[in-house]
Specification:
Elements lengths: L8 H13 L5 E5 L14 E7 L8 E3 L2 E5 L3 E2 L1 E2 L4 E2 L2 E5 L6 E8 L5 E2 L4 E2 L3 E2 L5 E5 L2
């Protein structure tokens, strides 16, 4: 007998909501270099630090086997220094606890930017979603 449980909408929505709640009043940071391995330390240079809302994400919803949560407003900020974006880190409000990291690119990445070149000019993110498949 296989061990292949199928989580239903309610359980995956609860999991995504718990995950995104960790980001409340937190930060989305953009770093140079290579995304760290699972549970690895952040490396490279922190290029930008953008504030997430007090309620960082709207309540997750399910559709066709995928649960999605969309970030509320992310505050634009001046870049901290110039460099090439390599990955991002979602940080708790204490700014020391890493919630997640992800790839950065101009398309097909976890976070898509119009350019990977970060400068000390304003950095903004117009939308950001977290998705989790139910299978």
């Amino acid at each position: 007998m296989a061990n292949n449980p199928f989580p239903y909408d309610a359980s995956v929505i609860a999991a995504v909501n718990a995950f995104t709640a960790l980001c409340n009043s937190g930060f989305l940071e953009i770093w140079s270099g290579t995304q760290p391995a699972l549970n690895g330390a952040l490396t490279g240079t922190k290029l930008a630090k953008l504030s997430l809302s007090a309620t960082a994400f709207a309540t997750a919803t399910a559709s066709a086997g995928t649960v999605t949560a969309t970030a509320n407003a992310i505050t634009a900020s001046a870049g901290l220094t110039s460099g090439t974006a390599g990955y991002f880190a979602l940080m708790k409000s204490d700014d020391s606890t890493i919630v997640a990291t992800g790839s950065v690119g101009t398309s097909g990445a976890d976070l898509n930017l119009s350019s990977l070149s970060i400068t000390t000019a304003q950095v903004s993110i117009t939308s950001f979603t977290v998705t989790e498949a139910e299978s």
